[in-house]
Amino acid sequence: MNRICRHAPTVSGAVTSGSCLTVNERSVYRGPNIFSMRSMIRIQIDLGMLEDWPSDRLPFFTEPLLDLLPGLARHGCSYQEPGGFVRRLREGTWLGHVIEHVALELQTMAGSPVSRGKTRSVKGMPGVYNILISYADEQAGMAAGAFAILLVSSLLPEGLRGVEGWEKLGVPRPADPQDVERLVRSLRELVRGNALGPTTAALVAAARRRGIPVIRLNEQSLIQFGHGSRQKRIRASITGDTPQIAVDIAGDKGLAKRLLDEAGLPVPRGMVVRSEEAAVRESRRLRRPLVVKPLDGNHGRGVTTQVREEAELRAAVARAMAHGRRIIVEEQLPGHDHRILVVAGKVVAVAERVPAQVTGDGVRSIAALIDQVNADPRRGRGHENALTRIVVDDAMLDLLGKGGLTPDSVPAPGERVRLRDTANLSTGGTAVDRTDDIHPDNRLIAEQAAAVAGLDVCGIDFLSPDISRPVRETGGGIVELNAAPGFRMHLEPSSGPARDVAAPVIDALFPPGRRGRIPIFAITGTNGKSTTARMVGRILCQHGLNVGMATTSGVYFNGHLLKEADASGPRSARMVLRNPAVDAAVLETARGGILREGLGYDRADVGAVLNVTADHLGLKGIDTVEALADVKSVVVENVARRGFSILNADDPMCLRIARHAGGRIVWFSLEGGARMAETLRRHLAAGGMAVLREADEGGGEIVVHRGGQRTVLMHASEIPATLGGIAEFNIANALAAVAMCMAHGVPAETVRDGLRAFTSSFEDSPGRLNMMESHGRRVIVDYAHNPAGLIALGQVVDRLRGGHGRAIGMVSIPGDRRDCDIVEMGRIAAGIFDDIIFREAPDGRGRPRGQTNALLTQGALNAGVPMERVHRIIDEFAAVDAALRMARPGDLLVILPTSVEQVWRQVQQFVPEIATGDQGAQVHA
């Protein structure tokens, strides 16, 4: 492709055209993928003639880049030490590699530090590179990659600049790609907008350290830890184990105080009132000073302390009632404000909270002093940083006014000016860790308070003059219980050691040894995936598990269809893993989803590659069977260390894949017994596991070899789906299912019972070797959509016809396959069927109407089939109708559908006498 840059001048007269960088495509991998076990962003670029301009040949490039991004000097790159990347720049490296590092640095500068990336050339495409960058925030990562492309391009000599295909990145184009401050600011906004709060982020980090899967369920703080029936959910520090009644108790401050008082725990005297007059009247029975606060408030909103006079009381009531109709008036306990955090009945952290304040210097005003405090880089908006900026508002002005001050007042040197009544971090307060100082009596009171409320995670506001002495001696007590307490003050106190308060929460949800995982059985291959998945699902249901399954037919729970769709991708896998009723996940994993987004999980317990043959070649850069094998190997490369990789010993590509498979390898093979391959013999001699078909008449025996022991499981003909042992591809699928289940520890008897109950009916396996008798005709509906699948089906057809009647086939192949594959499909069909009806996929898959049928016909004619045996019909349902009317009693009719359910229904409803359809739709060459 020839590209002309908009910039006319050239570099030393050497470049005149074709020098612009072009963005070809992008992907977001949200799990293990063909490039990495980590989530990555991929941007594919074509350097064009920039391939001839590595960094050492570019004048005025390296130094300006380092001036804009001095942090690049810290990148180790392949030298694995600071300065390594700069060394590569000066020695000479390609621009794709430069863009990778710039994207990583921009994310780091935006507060989302990442360091992993790679840039790889695309085989057979000179100048084309896949740039891969890790990310913490998906949107920010993609934007960083886009900005990096523009920034690097802007530093090139004028004749080499320019970016085409920018719109494919889905990122707004910045006005000035060299305005790094603005680029980083926009990235920071993305990170901030998508970031979890500090409490949720700490819990997520603690779960990941334990190897517990994490799934974000919304854009806020609803998180799923674990999978399926072993999952737990949190929303900030509210957990799935937190009783709603306990939350209600903590939220009703009056009720909470009464329950604590009745349990003998120290609380202030007070009452709940609904009006200003009631507050004045009831307060006469209380000792001054008083505290006035809304009954249902939080974060210190509407709270007034040190109330002594009636006028102050009335103003405080008005302030509190702005946040709720009911308010609390109570005696103010003496002491400093502490937050005690109790998790699973034990105190895990204590922080003394200091209200927002400034210290005078005799020169600057209170407002200027606040600005100075807010300049602390630890302070940010809301909960984004360890501390919150102090904001001047009406509550602050009222408090200052009590002391005769305003923001313009200049405090004397050393004078401390309190800016808030309460010590909440959300209003600018600070925290001092006191975990090691709390007296055992105070600790016990806090733990008892959490128990009274019933909270598994409880924040207790505790006033005490000296937390290291018993509160019953010093005065003080509990002023409030908090469900969903924030962790920020404990994670990053202003002084004192940080406390890992998230780990105890995760340990309470998942006791040691538990990681919230359900077994994941992942299956890939060219043919047989759906049937094998259904066999495994049936066996696991027989084992007493609730099975979630995702296949090309849809998402299922215990065999019942929940959602009809092609559900063989990562999104459907996540749907199964989110289902809280699922005990085991069986996931058909297709090539397309792996290429598009990676896997929908981090690792499987059992992964299987059934076979790899030429299908889908020429799509998404996968042009060879070896490259296709590399894609499918992602499933077994990401098997857990103690898991199992199930591989087909009869398939050359599976033998190749075995070198990188995770866990322990279990082979299956149709060639057992005397025909066993040497690879299998060595594997078994070493004590390895294999499931083999040891042949005799009727399909042979299924034999399990493990640890030097040989166990005959069953005869293949006992499995209804093998049609008495003649359907060898279903014997192979059964071998894989046996290997997957028995490797995972399912008893042999359960496996045997599951397979005996598995048929090739439409109900058990829609679109996979479904057979029925229709008006004296035998009809097979099977989703054989590639040459290897049709060859396997042809062997069954040959055995079923037995020399009686005709074999008629309605054959198709998706239009996005290569011409040679479509022609080959027609050639194979010619060797199987007496009469053939070729038809096309409903959408053509990018081919003009009639072209697929023409190529299929070419293959049949090349095989020597006379034209009168070939019929061409575009529409699928018209082709089915024509095939049904063509068949006579005693014939075998084979239909290869795209719309499986609709075609099966059409076959069931067919009645020869009233059949409709336009026979004239047939087109003969």
TrEMBL record:
Catalyzes the ATP-dependent polymerization of arginine and aspartate to multi-L-arginyl-poly-L-aspartic acid (cyanophycin; a water-insoluble reserve polymer). In the C-terminal section; belongs to the MurCDEF family. Homodimer. It comes from Sphingobium chlorophenolicum L-1. Keywords: ATP-binding, Ligase, Nucleotide-binding. One of its GO terms (molecular function) is metal ion binding. Its EC number is 6.3.2.29, 6.3.2.30. Coiled coil: none annotated. This is Cyanophycin synthetase. It catalyses: [L-4-(L-arginin-2-N-yl)aspartate](n) + L-aspartate + ATP = [L-4-(L-arginin-2-N-yl)aspartate](n)-L-aspartate + ADP + phosphate + H(+); [L-4-(L-arginin-2-N-yl)aspartate](n)-L-aspartate + L-arginine + ATP = [L-4-(L-arginin-2-N-yl)aspartate](n+1) + ADP + phosphate + H(+).
